[in-house]
UniProtKB/TrEMBL annotation:
UniProt key word Transcription regulation: yes
InterPro entries to which the protein is assigned, alphabetical: GntR_C, TF_FadR/GntR_C, Tscrpt_reg_HTH_GntR, WH-like_DNA-bd_sf, WH_DNA-bd_sf
An annotated Gene Ontology molecular function: DNA binding
Cross-referenced SUPFAM superfamilies: GntR ligand-binding domain-like (SSF48008), Winged helix' DNA-binding domain (SSF46785)
Pfam family, one: GntR
Domain HTH gntR-type span(s) in chain numbering: 22-89
Official protein name in the record: GntR family transcriptional regulator
UniProt keyword annotations, A-Z: DNA-binding, Transcription, Transcription regulation
Membrane-crossing residue ranges in chain numbering: none
Lineage, top ranks: Bacteria, Pseudomonadati, Pseudomonadota, Betaproteobacteria, Burkholderiales
């Protein structure tokens, strides 16, 4: 499977496209993902095939393919006879998702403790450092993507492919949910908390590993989405934001 990527940004473990995905499809996916995480596309925004086809100079079947992948990853809801909308999980769904994440990620960590090589744990530390750098550089979409990738990578290191697929959608949808709450001086997912998980993994301290992850997910779950208004320019929303140097 070919992963979403660009020339300037690392591959994301969060999202995948089929091998037949072309550059325009990958760009459209990445632009919509980044616009969601950067608050340029509010929850419940309607994504029309006609507008996206014009913006990306793509045939509608290509647009439908990308929207289908976004729906598969939990970022878009496809509603019969209505179209595609940026996902907006309700309170009950949010509670259910975080409850399930707690169970699945605890299982993943137990398997990582049993099987992961030291080099794999060092790579996790490197991922956390990249999170920190993206945050300090003001690249919010990249930082959020890397933050989500950390959880997917933990699942991958468990060696359970089904666990990876289940968590990919859960992480994607909960990341969308908590990133919709933009509060100054706060973070949707803390790289400091990720680092504490990695440090406990390095020490093979099972009790601390599980405790740190449980506390981390609890803090993430404490965030609630805010209601957002309507009315925006879709083409402008999909234009990448300049990153502070």
């Amino acid at each position: 499977m070919l992963k979403i990527m660009s020339a300037t940004k690392p591959i994301s473990r969060l999202s995948v496209v089929t091998e037949s995905g072309n550059d325009k499809e990958q760009r459209m996916y990445r632009d919509i993902y980044d616009a969601i995480m950067d608050h340029r596309l509010p929850a419940r925004t309607k994504l029309t095939e006609q507008s996206l086809s014009q913006i990306y100079d793509m045939a509608r079947h290509g647009v439908r393919k990308v929207l289908g992948q976004l729906a598969h990853d939990g970022l878009v809801d496809l509603e019969p006879n209505r179209g595609a909308f940026i996902a907006s999980p309700g309170e009950k769904e949010a509670q259910d998702m975080f409850e399930l994440r707690q169970s699945l990620e605890q299982l993943a960590l137990e398997k990582v403790l049993q099987h992961a090589a030291p080099e794999a744990i060092r790579q996790l530390r490197h991922m956390v450092e990249r999170e920190r750098q993206a945050y300090e550089q003001g690249d919010r979409p990249l930082w959020i993507r890397l933050s989500a990738d950390f959880h997917i990578e933990l699942a991958r290191l468990s060696g359970n492919d089904l666990l990876v697929e289940l968590l990919r959608r859960l992480v994607s949808r909960t990341t969308l949910l908590i990133s919709s709450q933009e509060v100054p001086a706060t973070r949707p997912c803390s790289f400091d908390e990720h680092l504490r998980v990695v440090e406990a993994l390095e020490k093979k301290d099972k009790k601390t590993v599980l405790s740190e992850m449980a506390q981390h997910l609890h803090q993430c779950a404490c965030r609630t989405p805010k209601n957002v208004g309507k009315g925006f320019d879709l083409k402008a929303a999909l234009k990448p934001r300049k990153i502070q140097k």
